[in-house]
Amino acid sequence: MASTILPLELVDRCIGSPIHVVMKNEREFTGTLMGFDDYVNMVLKDVKEYEVTPNGVVETDLGQTLLNGNNIAMLIPGGRGPNA
Amino acid sequence: MASTILPLELVDRCIGSPIHVVMKNEREFTGTLMGFDDYVNMVLKDVKEYEVTPNGVVETDLGQTLLNGNNIAMLIPGGRGPNA
Amino acid sequence: MASTILPLELVDRCIGSPIHVVMKNEREFTGTLMGFDDYVNMVLKDVKEYEVTPNGVVETDLGQTLLNGNNIAMLIPGGRGPNA
Amino acid sequence: MASTILPLELVDRCIGSPIHVVMKNEREFTGTLMGFDDYVNMVLKDVKEYEVTPNGVVETDLGQTLLNGNNIAMLIPGGRGPNA
Amino acid sequence: MASTILPLELVDRCIGSPIHVVMKNEREFTGTLMGFDDYVNMVLKDVKEYEVTPNGVVETDLGQTLLNGNNIAMLIPGGRGPNA
Amino acid sequence: MASTILPLELVDRCIGSPIHVVMKNEREFTGTLMGFDDYVNMVLKDVKEYEVTPNGVVETDLGQTLLNGNNIAMLIPGGRGPNA
Amino acid sequence: MASTILPLELVDRCIGSPIHVVMKNEREFTGTLMGFDDYVNMVLKDVKEYEVTPNGVVETDLGQTLLNGNNIAMLIPGGRGPNA
């Protein structure tokens, strides 16, 4: 049987690696995970924000960013964002 | 009388099996359940996302994904998604 | 005076019986209650989903399903759904 | 000075009596209160639901019903609903 | 320096007096405060409800009413409602 | 280095002084802060409410008012409201 | 391996420095961080508010401001706002 992976274990494995984050308000981010806490508030660096607009996906570079955990809908380890 | 099944028991039985997840914001996912915690945050692999758009259901492959438990509306063990 | 019934007592009495569930996002379900926990997360089997659309109520068979308790608006023991 | 009435005291006095319940999503119900818990989840019998639609208020008989306390906006002891 | 008034002190002083309550969903009420609890769930009597509609403010008499504290946006001691 | 100011310290310093409050539902208030509790529920006096309408900002005098802390988006010590 | 940074550590490092804050209701602020608490309620000085309107981004100077932590979506240390 495939080994079980707990959610915080998965996040912990992502430290230092790229990750794709989708927020509840549909904003999306990619970046390298620098750290997180029990509420899954997350510190990312080299962050790119993707905003879906009527004219397509707008990308913005943000550098280092702290994301509020209770606003996160899902995480995709190694994900390269909606345009990938 | 049919035996009672507690919610977390049902989720636990799904580890290693396909599952269909419907979020509160109407996004839907299928994948194989790898693990979960007490808040029913869930780690899935081989994930497919289904987004209902005016032009029908758009499917996206996501690979391994962590879903935020407080955003989940319902789980269908063995479910194969909205197109099934 | 009619005897008092506590909410979780009522739910407990429904185990093994049909129940109609209305969610906060207006989705409705019928099915047989298999189990529940203190947060009234509920396991149902033989589940039918009812979605109100401009062209009337669309029914979908889901089999066994786990519903997130904090998304439930109301429960109708023995209820046979919106088309009944 | 008028005697003070605590909220749960008021609800307790309503057991066995008619009550009008308005939910946060604007759905309204009348029925006889059978019981409630500390979260003011409520069991009602002989329940009538009132849904405000463009063509006026639609009434539906539901029989016995459990209402989720965190979705309740207000209670009117002895209230006979929006058409009264 | 003006003496400090704590929120629950202010509510306590209003017992037996008229009060104007504005809910988060924009419904407004006036009435006499009969009692409240730590969650500021409130029992009012001689209650009048004010609903802002396209054709102006509609007033409805409700008698005794229990308001859910977590749905209250603000309280105006002695307030006589939006038409005052 | 500028001295650090903790949120509740800042609010405490405002007691007896004018303050501008912006709620999550975009309603705005000015008034003199009389007191507050750990949830930042706030008692204000000489309160003016500002409602942004299609025809500009409508001001209403409310006198003494209690604002629900969990509905507050931000506080501006000494602020004189949106028209200042 | 890059050193891990915990969310509250990152915020702590920002004290006395410029920071860009994006709220859940899409309002944005820049200012110098003066202090914060465990709920990430934040005290900022020299605050500028950015509101996205049909006619572009409107900037308003607010001076010292307290932001409610549970309304914050994300923080960008050293960020100079949406027009940068």
Give a short summary of the structure.
Chains A, B, C, D, E, F, G: It is found in: Nucleus. 7 copies of one chain form a homoheptamer. Helices cover 8% and strands 54% of the residues of chain A.
Biggest interface reads: F-G, 22 and 23 residues
Proportion in helices of chain A: under 10%
Count structural domains of chain A: 1
| SS content category of chain A | mainly beta
Total strands of chain A: the figure is: 5
Question: What is the CATH architecture annotation of chain A?
Answer: Roll
Strand order within the widest sheet of chain A?
4-3-2-1-5
Rough shape of chain A? globular
Low-confidence stretches of chain A: none
CATH topology descriptor of chain A? SH3 type barrels
One letter per element, helices H and strands E, the order of chain A comes to HEEEEE
Count of DSSP helices of chain A? 1
Mean pLDDT of chain A: 92
Largest sheet of chain A: 5 strands, antiparallel
Give the oligomeric state of the chains in this entry, treating copies of one chain as homo and distinct chains as hetero.
homoheptamer
Strand content of chain A: over 45%
Subunit structure (chains A, B, C, D, E, F, G): LSm subunits form a heteromer with a doughnut shape.
Function (chains A, B, C, D, E, F, G): Plays a role in U6 snRNP assembly and function. Binds to the 3' end of U6 snRNA.
Domain Sm (chains A, B, C, D, E, F, G): 6-81
Subcellular location (chains A, B, C, D, E, F, G): Nucleus
What does this structure look like?
The structure is a homoheptamer of 84-residue chains. The first copy, chain A, has one helix at 7-13, and strands spanning 18-23, 28-36, 42-53, 56-67, 72-77. The model of chain A has no long low-confidence stretch (mean pLDDT 92). Helix content of chain A is 8%, strand content 54%. Chain A contains one helix and five strands. In chain A, strands 4-3-2-1-5 form a five-stranded antiparallel β-sheet, covered by helices on one side. The longest helix of chain A is centred in the N-terminal third of the chain and has 7 residues, at 7-13. With 84 residues, chain A is mainly β. At the F-G interface, helix 1 and strand 5 of F face strand 2, strand 3 and strand 4 of G. Chains A, B, C, D, E, F, G: Keywords: Acetylation, mRNA processing, mRNA splicing, Nucleus, Ribonucleoprotein, RNA-binding, Spliceosome. Chains A, B, C, D, E, F, G: It is found in: Nucleus. Chains A, B, C, D, E, F, G: GO terms for molecular function: RNA binding.
